[in-house]
């Protein structure tokens, strides 16, 4: 490989100096070699006439950030003599139009020579070839026809020389734009040569300097104009293409019209058949093939209209599979779908041909029993359906038993809208589920009243969350060894604006079902922690604890531990001051997930209490799987300790086994001295109940703390 010095020497020998054009590459041998070889092959040794090359270079320099005569090739002007004026005139000439290009192509086609020789061009041919070359350089998209004609007129070899030179011009432009740091100055030797040749232009040097500044000032404007021109040309091309496409589509449509008219009759028939199929699909359940809700409501409406005159009795049964979700979750949705299909077939076998069985959605079905004689006919069908379900279903070698909850609504209500009758049956079905599932219930007006009240309760509860209508009562938790208050359990109450104080037994189930328990629970937790911190500041008693109930909805929150950590931080509480209570049912819902969440809370330093123990499904042997610190014996056992010996024995067993597992015990619902004595004998650590204090507002709880503190100080000082 040659060195940079050898390449530079060769360039100086050719041009008489080392042009600034090559200076950015003088320290990179490979780049300098490539640039010089391109210059040799595409410019210096290109057989195109020197005058034609300079004219093309001069014209196209308007699209470069560096003007003509500052490029290294400007020294070629020395050899052009008076023809240099022709080159300079191109610096200000306008770009050719498509119409002018068409005229120039015509001139080239009509030339006498069979093939144009690039090294020797007459003025007319040179001018036309020059503007055609400019056009294919500038207009890439619109110049395809021009390129094709030039390739034919010049021949492959000459056309390749021309294209190579145009590509080289583009390379020069890109190179100079990429290196704006080059200090291009006019070639004084060229200026002197031109000055002697063009005596009528004595201030040619000033011309070049002014021209350079002018080009640089107009560079941005020229670029914007070029962009606008390109956009306009693209739009024109898009319009032309759209017109061509439209014409082609019209021609194709016209050609197909005769064929389409012949097939019209067949198409109409196919469409009618498709409409019939679509009507069937819209009225039928895709899985079971039964009527869907739409068709069922239509038939129910027709039955209501028909019986207005005949006064015939009919009934609607609303059915819901019990624990269907268990089948889906354990055996998969495919097995669940098969169960629904088999269930539908078994129901259908129990009905008359005039009855309607429909799938409303999910695991919900409805039956319309027409022309029954009395309510016992509907009851008999419900009992028959229940009896049929005592036979197991077989799903992929699995034997599956299921039951159904049924709600029955009679036409004696006199409804005119089918929706009302189906609603009543739905309400009765939910009452059957609430009573233990696997049974039927007949709708009565009391059910509707209760459902309406429940709906109103939900609406009021949502408003209560927005308006923060809740307050907290605090029940002391007492050490059975010292009789001292060690803390309080925070119990939420609802201060209803019309009904007054509402207890949690009434609104917590609704809050759990609707998910409102989550914001309510966080509010209780935040307010209880704030109150405890206030008491700690007032009484300088940092050992007090606060116990707050946590629902299963909270344990399904992914950010539970972060929320609790934030609440503790906001109220400046240590984690050991907070105790969280959960019920046995929470542990059994999703064992692994719950265990993970509880471990995260324990890692924060928070104790976990198992509330209402003995009323759920868990066992003491199962507790070692969970990080439980304290068992709270349900009040139903404690209340009967001094009445029923069996309850006392249950409490004894729970306390003994809990101690063996290293778990403390708190007894709830202590009401009498006798209960307290027995619990102390059994070494129960803590207790709470009305014997000590009912749940009281924060001010009363503060008084209890103050009273206990005064008594303690009296004992110390005496």
TrEMBL record:
SMART domains per the UniProt record, alphabetical: EAL, GGDEF
Family annotation (InterPro entries): AhpD-like (IPR029032), Biofilm_reg_signaling (IPR052155), EAL_dom (IPR001633), EAL_sf (IPR035919), GGDEF_dom (IPR000160), Nucleotide_cyclase (IPR029787), Rev_trsase/Diguanyl_cyclase (IPR043128)
Domain GGDEF: 312-445
One Pfam family hit: EAL
Gene3D superfamilies, per the entry: 3.30.70.270, AhpD-like, EAL domain
Domain (EAL) ranges: 454-709
PROSITE patterns given in the database record: EAL, GGDEF
Entry-linked NCBIfam families: GGDEF
Protein's recorded name: Diguanylate cyclase
Species this protein is from: Nostoc minutum NIES-26
């Amino acid at each position: 490989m040659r060195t940079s010095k050898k390449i530079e020497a060769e360039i100086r020998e050719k041009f008489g100096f080392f042009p600034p054009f090559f200076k950015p590459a003088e320290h990179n041998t490979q780049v300098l070699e490539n640039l010089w070889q391109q210059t040799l092959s595409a410019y210096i040794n290109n057989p195109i006439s020197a005058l034609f090359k300079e004219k093309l270079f001069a014209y196209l320099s308007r699209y470069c950030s560096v003007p003509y005569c500052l490029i290294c090739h400007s020294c070629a002007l020395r050899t052009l003599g008076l023809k240099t004026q022709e080159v300079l005139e191109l610096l200000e000439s306008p770009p050719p139009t498509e119409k002018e290009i068409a005229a120039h192509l015509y001139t080239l086609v009509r030339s006498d020579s069979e093939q144009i020789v690039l090294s020797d061009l007459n003025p007319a041919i040179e001018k036309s070839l020059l503007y055609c070359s400019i056009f294919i350089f500038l207009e890439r998209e619109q110049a395809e026809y021009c390129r094709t004609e030039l390739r034919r007129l010049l021949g492959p070899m000459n056309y390749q020389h021309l294209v190579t030179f145009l590509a080289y011009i583009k390379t020069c432009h890109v190179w100079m734009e990429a290196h704006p740091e080059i200090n291009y100055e006019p070639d004084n030797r060229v200026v002197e040569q031109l000055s002697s040749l063009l005596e009528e232009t004595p201030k040619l040097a000033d011309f070049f300097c002014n021209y350079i500044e002018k080009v640089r000032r107009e560079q941005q404007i020229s670029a914007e104009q070029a962009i606008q021109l390109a956009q306009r040309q693209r739009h024109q091309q898009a319009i032309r293409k759209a017109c061509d496409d439209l014409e082609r589509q019209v021609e194709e449509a016209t050609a197909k019209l005769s064929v389409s008219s012949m097939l019209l009759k067949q198409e109409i028939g196919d469409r009618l058949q498709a409409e019939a199929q679509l009507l069937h699909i819209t009225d039928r359940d895709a899985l079971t093939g039964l009527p869907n809700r739409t068709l069922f409501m239509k038939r129910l409406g027709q039955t209501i209209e028909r019986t207005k005159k005949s006064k015939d009795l009919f009934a609607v049964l609303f059915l819901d599979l019990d624990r269907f979700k268990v089948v889906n979750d354990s055996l998969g949705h495919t097995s669940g779908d098969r169960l629904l299909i088999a269930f539908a077939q078994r129901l259908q076998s129990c009905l008359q041909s005039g009855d309607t069985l429909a799938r409303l959605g999910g695991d919900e079905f409805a039956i319309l029993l027409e022309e029954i004689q009395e309510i016992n006919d509907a009851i008999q069908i419900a009992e028959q359906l229940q009896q049929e379900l005592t036979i197991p279903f077989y799903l992929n070698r699995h034997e599956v038993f299921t039951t159904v909850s049924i709600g029955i609504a009679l036409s004696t209500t006199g409804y005119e809208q089918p929706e009302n009758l189906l609603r009543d049956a739905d309400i009765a079905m939910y009452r059957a589920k609430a009573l233990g599932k696997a049974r039927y219930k007949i709708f009565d007006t009391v059910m509707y009243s209760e459902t309406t009240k429940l709906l109103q309760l939900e609406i009021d509860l949502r408003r209560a969350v927005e308006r923060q209508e809740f307050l907290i009562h605090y029940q002391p938790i007492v050490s059975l060894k010292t009789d001292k208050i060690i803390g309080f359990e925070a119990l939420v109450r609802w201060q209803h604006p019309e009904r007054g104080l509402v207890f949690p037994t009434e609104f917590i189930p609704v809050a759990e079902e609707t998910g409102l328990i989550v914001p309510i629970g966080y509010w209780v937790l935040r307010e209880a922690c704030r109150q405890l911190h206030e008491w700690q500041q007032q009484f300088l008693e940092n050992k007090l604890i606060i116990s707050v109930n946590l629902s299963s909805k909270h344990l399904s929150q992914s950010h539970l531990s972060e929320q609790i950590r934030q609440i503790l931080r906001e109220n400046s509480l240590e984690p050991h001051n907070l105790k969280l209570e959960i019920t046995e049912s929470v542990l059994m819902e999703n064992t692994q997930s719950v265990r993970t969440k509880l471990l995260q809370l324990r890692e924060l330093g928070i104790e976990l209490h198992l509330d209402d123990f003995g009323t759920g499904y868990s066992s003491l042997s199962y507790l070692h799987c969970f990080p439980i610190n304290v068992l709270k014996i349900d009040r139903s056992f404690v209340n009967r300790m001094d009445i029923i010996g069996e309850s006392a024995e249950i409490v004894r067993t729970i306390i003994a086994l809990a101690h063996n597992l290293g778990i403390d015990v708190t007894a709830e619902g202590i009401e009498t001295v006798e209960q307290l004595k027995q619990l102390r004998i059994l070494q129960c650590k803590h207790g709470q109940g009305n014997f000590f204090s009912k749940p009281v507002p924060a001010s009363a709880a503060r008084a209890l703390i103050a009273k206990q503190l005064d008594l303690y100080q009296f004992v110390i000082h005496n």
